[in-house]
Automatic annotation (TrEMBL):
Spans traversing the lipid bilayer: 65-85, 106-127, 139-161, 173-194, 214-234
Pfam families, per the entry: Caa3_CtaG
This protein's name: Membrane protein
Compartment(s) of residence: Cell membrane
Keyword Coiled coil attributed: no
Alphabetized UniProt keyword annotations: Cell membrane, Membrane, Transmembrane, Transmembrane helix
Record's bilayer topology term: Multi-pass membrane protein
Length: 258
């Protein structure tokens, strides 16, 4: 977990460095995106290092919500891939990044249903198989699970919001349905945990942990839906303005010819 916090802080430092470099070059980069990305790094550090309140299972669920939901949303809102494309000058590093982002494996990983399966499906595997018990016996497996939760959360959030350039852009219906389905599966899992605790968990600590997973997940999922709706509204407005300007442009050309 400490290594995860170090990686998050290093990513935030690299992000801020790139944003400052962009501004010194005379290009604009919104401060809100910088705050969002750094907030994601703080969320990871808090999950890894901060003494969260509650019993062991409640603390674990607090880490889950921070790592798998809050941090990914903030990281994606920071649009790090867009920043990298704008900060890198034309050359080999930029071409390599472009090939990576537009590669077929990357395209599959950010296909919304696949990303949802990796994210929420991974949680079902964790809590409804012997894997959760194994994480208590093997520290390396515990760290690997946390890393998966963070990465899967980032992929899912990126696939739904599509704020950064992707290999292929998917429609609002597919992304919205995927978000609703993933939210439902996450909520159902939280309810099953409330009724039946996984191994190595104190039954007295289960209700608080399950409620934190359920209601904390709801808050982040609502935020995702709001960002998705705002993105759709902005895109629809751009299309409307573009459609309205075309007849006017055609009319001005006709008048000029006369």
């Amino acid at each position: 977990m400490t290594a995860l916090a170090v990686l998050a802080v290093a990513a935030a430092v690299a992000y801020v460095t790139a944003a400052v470099h962009l501004c010194l070059r005379g290009d604009f980069w919104p401060a809100t995106r910088v705050f969002a990305f750094c907030g994601g790094a703080v969320s990871v550090a808090a999950a890894a290092l901060a003494p969260l309140p509650g019993g062991a299972f409640t603390v674990h669920m607090g880490q889950h919500v921070l790592l798998g939901m809050v941090a990914p949303l903030l990281f994606v809102l920071g649009r790090p891939v867009t920043l990298a494309f704008r900060a890198l000058r034309p050359g080999s590093p930029r071409r390599l990044l472009l090939r990576l982002v537009h590669s077929r494996p990357a395209g599959w990983l950010v296909f919304p249903p696949v990303a949802a399966l990796l994210d929420v499906g991974g949680l079902w595997v964790l809590y409804r198989t012997p894997l959760f018990a194994a994480t208590h016996e093997h520290p390396w497996l515990h760290a690997l699970v946390h890393f998966h939760v963070l990465v899967a959360g980032i992929l899912f959030t990126a696939s739904v919001l599509q704020l950064d350039p992707l290999r292929r852009r998917y429609g609002l219906v597919l992304r919205g349905v995927t978000l609703v389905a993933a939210s439902a599966a996450h909520g159902v899992l939280a309810k099953t945990l409330y009724l039946s605790a996984p191994p190595h968990v104190s039954f007295a600590d289960v209700p608080r942990g399950a409620e934190l997973m359920y209601y904390g997940g709801d808050v982040v999922e609502i935020a995702l839906a709001v960002v998705l709706a705002l993105g759709w509204y902005a895109e629809a407005g751009r299309r409307y303005r573009a459609a309205g300007s075309q007849p006017a442009a055609a009319g001005s050309v006709t008048a000029g010819r006369r």
